[in-house]
C-alpha cells in the first residue's frame, strides 16, 4: 500500500557558524514514518525555492516542528524586543501561509511547539515572548543540563476539555507531557480553539475550529519517544489516519479526472 507523504518544515542553521544548512530533528522523521505510517520529507524554510501551491500538491500533509528561532512579532503586530529571542523570517513566510491554506482546504496539519505558536499567529493570535515571567506561571523551558532523556522527560499534566477534540483523541481528560518552550499564547486567534491547559493555565493544546480536516497543534514535543509513549502514539496515529484519508481522496479525484478526460476524448 502506498504511504502518504508528509512535508516536515525545516529550520535554517549554520554549521561552524559559516556553512548554511536546512535541517529537522531525526525524531520528527522517525515519528512520521514509524507511528503515522507516512513518508517524511524535509521542506527547506525558504520561500524562494518553491510556491506554496507546489508543496500542497506534492505532500499529503505537513508537520510544523519546534525550532530555536521564534515567530517574528511583526507577524502579529508587535515590535521585536530582546525577550523575543532570534528569528527565522523565511520559515515565517513558509509556515504561516501554508497553515492558512491547509486549514482552509482541509489538508492535514500537525503543529509541535514552535508549530503550535505558528498555528496561533497564522490565524490571528498573538504570543507572550517569555511566559515564565508572567505572574503565577511555571518555567516551561527545557532544563539547561542533563541527558536528552532528562530534558525530554515528562514534566507536568495537561487538563483537556471533557468531550473536546483532544479528550476524544486521547480517551482521557488528563495526560502527562514534556515541556521545552519559552513562549506561549497571549491572545488566541479567532479560528483557534483552546482545548488543553498546563496546571498554571498555559494553553497547551489547540485546534482550528472551522478547518474541514485534521488541524491540531500541541505545545509539547510528542515526537520524542513517539513509538513508546501512549500519548504520542495516539496523536501521530490520528495524524496518519487523516493523511491516508486525504491521500485516498486525492487519488479518487485524480482517477475521476482521468476518466472524465477519456470520456470526452471518446465522444469527440
Provide a short characterization of the protein structure.
By secondary structure, the protein is an alpha/beta fold.
Describe this structure as you would to a colleague.
- This protein has 268 residues and is an alpha/beta fold.
- Helix content is 34%, strand content 22%.
- The protein is built from 7 helices and 13 strands.
- It has helices at 26-34, 52-58, 89-105, 114-122, 148-151, 165-170, 230-267; strands spanning 5-9, 11-15, 19-23, 39-43, 61-64, 109-112, 126-128, 156-160, 174-177, 184-187, 192-197, 203-208, 215-218.
- The strands form 3 sheets. Strands 4-1-5-6-13-12-11-8-9 form a 9-stranded mixed sheet, with helices on both faces.
- A hairpin with a 3-residue loop joins strand 2 and strand 3 (19-23).
- Helix 3 packs across helix 4 (114-122).
- The radius of gyration is 19 Å and the shape is globular.
- 43% of the residues are buried.
Largest β sheet strand count, sense and barrel closure:
9 strands, mixed
Question: What's the arrangement of strands in the largest beta sheet?
Answer: 4-1-5-6-13-12-11-8-9
Helix percentage range: 25-40%
Low-confidence stretches: 255-265
User: What order do the SSEs take from the amino end to the carboxyl end, as H and E?
Assistant: EEEHEHEHEHEHEHEEEEEH
Total helical elements: 7
Strand content: 15-25%
Determine the structural class based on helices, strands and strand pairing: alpha/beta
Radius of gyration: 19 Å
Choose one word for the global shape: globular
Number of strands: 13
Mean model confidence by pLDDT: 92
Gap from first CA to last CA: 36 Å
Amino acid at each position: 500500500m502506498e504511504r502518504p507523504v508528509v512535508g516536515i518544515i525545516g529550520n535554517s542553521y549554520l554549521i561552524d557558524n559559516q556553512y548554511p544548512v536546512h535541517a529537522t530533528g531525526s525524531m520528527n522523521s522517525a515519528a512520521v514514518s514509524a507511528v503515522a505510517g507516512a513518508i517524511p520529507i524535509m521542506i527547506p524554510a525558504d520561500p524562494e525555492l518553491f510556491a506554496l501551491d507546489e508543496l500542497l500538491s506534492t505532500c499529503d500533509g505537513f508537520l510544523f516542528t519546534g525550532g530555536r528561532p521564534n515567530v517574528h512579532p511583526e507577524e502579529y503586530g508587535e515590535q521585536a524586543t530582546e525577550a523575543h529571542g532570534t528569528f527565522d523570517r523565511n520559515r515565517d513566510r513558509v509556515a504561516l501561509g501554508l497553515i492558512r491554506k491547509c486549514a482552509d482546504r482541509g489538508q492535514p496539519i500537525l503543529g509541535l511547539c514552535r508549530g503550535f505558536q505558528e498555528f496561533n499567529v497564522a490565524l490571528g493570535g498573538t504570543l507572550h515572548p517569555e511566559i515564565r515571567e508572567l505572574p503565577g506561571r511555571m518555567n516551561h523551558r527545557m532544563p539547561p543540563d542533563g541527558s536528552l532523556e532528562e530534558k525530554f522527560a515528562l514534566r507536568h499534566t495537561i487538563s483537556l476539555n471533557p468531550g473536546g477534540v483532544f479528550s476524544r483523541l486521547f480517551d482521557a481528560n488528563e495526560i502527562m507531557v514534556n515541556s521545552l518552550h519559552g513562549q506561549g499564547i497571549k491572545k488566541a486567534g479567532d479560528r483557534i480553539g483552546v482545548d488543553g491547559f498546563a496546571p498554571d493555565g498555559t494553553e497547551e493544546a489547540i485546534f482550528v475550529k472551522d478547518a474541514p480536516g485534521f488541524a491540531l497543534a500541541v505545545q509539547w514535543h510528542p515526537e520524542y519517544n513517539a513509538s513508546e509513549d501512549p500519548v504520542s502514539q495516539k496523536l501521530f496515529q490520528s495524524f496518519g489516519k487523516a493523511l491516508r484519508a486525504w491521500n485516498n481522496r486525492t487519488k479518487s479525484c485524480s482517477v475521476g479526472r482521468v476518466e472524465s478526460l477519456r470520456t470526452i476524448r471518446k465522444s469527440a
